[in-house]
Hints:
This protein has 269 residues and is of the alpha+beta class. The protein is built from seven helices and twelve strands. The strands form three sheets. The protein has a seven-stranded mixed beta sheet, with helices on both faces. Helix 3 (88-97) runs antiparallel to helix 4 (110-121).
Amino acid sequence: MAGDGSDFPDPVAAPPEGLLAVGGDLSPARLVAAYLRGIYPWYDRGTPILWWSPDPRCALLPDELHVSRSLARCIRSNVFEVTFDKAFALVIRRCAATPRQGQRGTWLVPAMINAYEGLHRLGIAHSAEAWQDGRLVGGLYGVALGGVFYGESMFHLVPEASKVAFTWLATWLRQAGCTLIDCQQTTPHMVRFGARELPRPEFLARLADGVRGALRLADGSEVRCPEISDLPMRTLTPGPDAPWMAAQPSGPEARPARHWRVPAGFRPL
């Protein structure tokens, strides 16, 4: 496949289970090109990269977010502190390490972790974290392009922690101008939040409209979808000498401007 991902097959050609293409790499340009088309990577150790676009597609329209009474009470009790983009690397590794019922191993292989950390450094992948007594006990991460957020994975070490983090994130995304949250797979967990299965034509139409939008950040700036031509077309190298680290500020509080923060005074309920 071309380095910029321009030769992905049309998602309409994918069978209902969603397998669309095999191979390629996980460069930022290819990943963004895939997400813009409603395609995402999902594979295991020992297999080539597999690209998926299932039909129907589970998605949450932010205006349809449902928060149960018990979860609302938990949020109002302030049991957890919620942050955005404070511990992306730890969140994605906890997602990889958390056992899943009915699954052996993890699809978050090292190459995937490296790829999404690269997107995070570019201000494209983001995380939400739930903390308890200074300890990370739940969270999730995903990709944001225009007015669309693509949820990737979540974990919890304490009951309700990931649900609280997701509620904070989804509520803020709605306020910021997000019009679609892609859940990829249908799970009872997301259905309880109000997610529903969208037929492929509807999902792709909402996606095409959503990525043309923008998210309004706390400082009043807008973040729109990057141009694929501006993104690296090779897999980024991890570590402090990686090309995306050039000219980045240092220190524990230093984060690129495109990384998110919970707005001062924001509450989800």
